[in-house]
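Changelog excerpt

This revision adds worked examples to the README so contributors can see how folded entries look when concatenated. The first example is reproduced verbatim below.
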Amino acid sequence: MDIPTQSFLPWKISIAILHVTAAATACLRIDYRRRTRRLWWDDYAASVPAFTESFNAVFLWIRLRHFSDEEDTNLREMKVAFGFLNSGLFATTMWWSRISMALAIVRITPEWSKSRIITLFATSAFIFSWIALVVSFAVACALRSSWQYSTADVLICGPANMSTIASIALDITGDVYLAALPLYRLWRIRLPLAQRRLIRLVFSTSLLTLLPVLVVLVWSYGGFIKGPGFGLVWLMLLQMEEAISVIASNLTVLIAWCYKSFNGDIDVDAESNKYVNPHWTTSSPSVLPSVTVIEPFAATFNQASNQANCNAYASDSSGTRSLKSAQADSNEQHICKDQPHANRDIETGHT
C-alpha cells in the first residue's frame, strides 16, 4: 500500500489538539488532587508529561513546515536537531506517563503486600528504561547518520533504528504489566460492586496505550506500507501514541472525579489515600490544612491535658497556690468537675 505525500496543515491541527488535550488532562488531575489535598508522587510524575505535551503542541508547528534553501545557512543542522529533540521528547513523555501509573498502583497497594515490592521494582525499571532509551536514541541516531543527509523537509531517525525496536518491545511489556497487576490487586479489594467495576475499568484504560503501540509496530515492520508519505504518517502515529499514553495515565483520577460529581456520597479516589500519606497542600498560604488523621487522638490529648491541670489544682488546694494562679480557679473548677472519678483518685492519692 502506497501512502501519498501528506499535507502538513491537517496533521498539525489534529495532533496539536490531541497534545493540548493530553496536557489539559494532566493539569486537571494535578489541580484536583491539590484541591482535595491528596497530592502524592504519582501526581508529581504526571507533571513531566504535562510539560512535554505542552511543548510538543508548539514544537509540532515549528518542525512541520516547508523549508527553503535560502532561509537558513544551517538549515540541515537545525532539522537534525529537531530529529534528536523529538526522540528525547517521545521517550520522556511515554515513560514518565508509565512511571506515574506505576506509582498510582503503589499508592493503592498495602505495605505488607508482595505486589508493592514488585511495583516499586517496576517503577525503578521504568526510570531506568527512560534513561536507557534517551541515551540509546541519541547514540544510535548519531552513529547511523544517513537520515541526516536527506533532502526532505522533516528529518526522521526512522524505524530501522534498533533503538526503535527495543522501545516498542518495552512499550508492550510495560503496558501489559500496568494493566494486569492493578486488575489483580483491585479484584481482591472489598468494595461495593459499582465501585469495583469502576476502578477496574479505570485501570484497564492502560490497555488503550497498547493499540497505538501495535499500530506503530505493524506500520513500521509490516513491509506492506510504503510510499512518499510513509515517514510523516509514522511520525504522527508516534505523536498520537504519546498523547494517548498521557490521557490514559490521568483517566484514573479524572473518572473518579466525575463519578464523585454525579454521586456526591461516593468518593472513589479516597481509596488512594489508604496506604500512603499524601503531601497535602492548601490554596491559601496563610491557612494551615487541617490534618484529619490526628483527630482520633485529639480527645485523648485534651483529656490528658485536663488531667494534668486537675492534678496541679488538687495539689495546690491546701493553700499553696499563688495569687496569679488563683485567678484561674473558676476555669479549673469547671474543667475538673467534668472528671469526678479522676478528682476522687487525685484526692485519695494526696490524703
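The second example, added in the same revision:
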Amino acid sequence: MTGVKVKACSAEMFQTLVQLFLIVGTLVHPTDGAIQRPDYDDTPHPEFLNPSWMSGIPDSLPLSEVTMPGTHNTMALFGGALAECQSWNLTSQLRAGVRFLDIRLRHVKGNLTLHHGVSYQRAHFGHVLQGVVDFLDEYLNETVLMRVREEFSETYDIYGAVVRYVHRYARWDMLWHSRLMPTMGQARGKLIVLQDFRGPDLGMRYGSLDIADDWKVPTLLHVPEKWQSVHKHLELAPVGNKAQLFLTFASGAGVFACPGAIAHRINAKLYDYLTGKTGKDQRFGVIVMDYPAAPVIQMIIDFN
C-alpha cells in the first residue's frame, strides 16, 4: 500500500513539475533565434510582399464582406518578451498585406505616444499617420482600418489630440467620415478610423463590429481555451451578418504567457484551420495576429 501511495505522490509531483515548466517557459520567447515559418515570423522582414492586393476586390463589394489580415498591438516592437507583439515595422506590415492596425496611445498634455502598457514604443501617433499616408499615396486602390484607443493613461479625452495629429500628419479628407460601412470603391485611398474612444465621430465605431478578443491566456495550459474562442468566431463569420464587420483576435497574453509564445502555438492552429478551408467561398472578416508570416497573410487574402 505504501508503494502505491509513493507512486501516486510521485505522479502528482511530476505533473506539478510539468505544469511549472510550462508556466515558466512562457516567460521567454519561443526560441533565442529568429523563426520564419508559414504561420509565424519574428524576423525583421516578411518573406514576400503583397502591397496592392485590394486592387482585385470589386468596387461594389461592402468592406464588411472582405477578408483581411491585421496585427494586434501593431507598433509593439520594443520592451522585451512580455511587451513585444510584432517584429516588422509599420511599412513592412502594410506592404506584406496587413490592412487592420491596432494603435494604442498614451495621452499626456496633448501628446500621443505609442505604448503597450508601460512599454513606450519609441514613436508617436504622427509616425503612424505619416506611414499610412505614404502607403495610401503610393497604393491608391488600398484602404487601411485603424483601431485607435487610449493606453497607459486615463484621461478619457483623446479626441482633440487625435484631430490635431490628423491635421498635422495626415489629411482630413483622407479619413472615412461616416459610421456607415463603405463599399470597397468608397474605401479606396481612405484611412478608416475604428474609434475606440469618446468624442464626435471620426469614422466607424469600434464597438459596432462583431468582435472576439479573449486575450487573457494566463499560461500555455490555457492555449486550447484560447483556440476554442478563435475557432468559434471564425466559424460564425461566414454565416453572420454580412453588413457587419467581423474581427477575430488570434493574439493573447498573460502574466505567465508572453505574446510570442502564444502566437507560436495559436498561429499554427490558425494556419491549419485556414488550410482546411482553402477553396471555399467564405467571408472571415479581419483576422488579427501577433507575429504573422507572409504565407498566412496571403492565405487570408486568398479567401477574397
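Reviewer comment on example two: The beta strands are 68-71, 100-108, 111-116, 119-124, 144-150, 191-195, 204-205, 210-212, 246-249, 286-289. The helical segments are 2-25, 90-96, 125-138, 159-169, 184-187, 223-236, 259-277, 294-301.
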